Amino acid sequence: MPGFVLQVAPAPAELSLPAVRVGFTVSRKVGNAVARNRVRRRLREIAGMIIPGEARTDLDYVLVGRQAALARDFAAMREELQEALKRLKALAPGNVVATP
């Protein structure tokens, strides 16, 4: 089970500057405040590493943390985020990787 769910929506047209906007949410079902904050910190870190360089500016992103993120390997979560961006066709035009 993945450590998060990625949701994508079109960014509002009235934004003055194109910017990548990312939101994070973690339900109370994940655990107490300490656990939720740990998941949120991990999601912020992987998003900060991947999204600015690879994401489209015309989309808004929301990462929904799951309980599996507490024990999930950090490198695996990074790979999952890259794969999720590919599946949702949310990669910036220069970053699209062709698959045979």
Structure description:
With 100 residues, the protein is α+β, with helices and mostly antiparallel strands. It has a single domain, classed as 2-Layer Sandwich (Ribosomal Protein S5, domain 2). It is globular.
| Topology pattern, helix = H, strand = E | EEHEH
Q: Classify the fold: give the CATH topology.
A: Ribosomal Protein S5, domain 2
User: Largest beta sheet, briefly?
Assistant: 3 strands, mixed
Distance between the termini: 26 Å
Q: What is the arithmetic mean of pLDDT? A: 87
Strand portion, in percent?
A: 15-25%
Q: Going across the biggest sheet, name each strand in turn.
A: 1-3-2
Task: Assign the CATH class.
Answer: Alpha Beta
Number of domains: 1
- Which CATH architecture? 2-Layer Sandwich
Counting helices, strands and paired strands, the structural category is alpha+beta
Which overall shape is indicated by the principal axes computed on the Cα atoms? globular
What's the count of strands? Answer: 3
Rg over C-alpha atoms, rounded to the nearest angstrom: 14 Å
Helix content bin: 25-40%
Low-confidence stretches: none
Number of helices: 2
In brief:
This protein has 100 residues and is of the alpha+beta class. Helices cover 36% and strands 20% of the residues.
Produce the secondary structure layout.
Blueprint: E1 4-10, E2 21-26, H1 33-54, E3 59-65, H2 74-87
Parallel strand pairs: 2-3
Antiparallel strand pairs: 1-3
Helix pairs in contact: 1-2
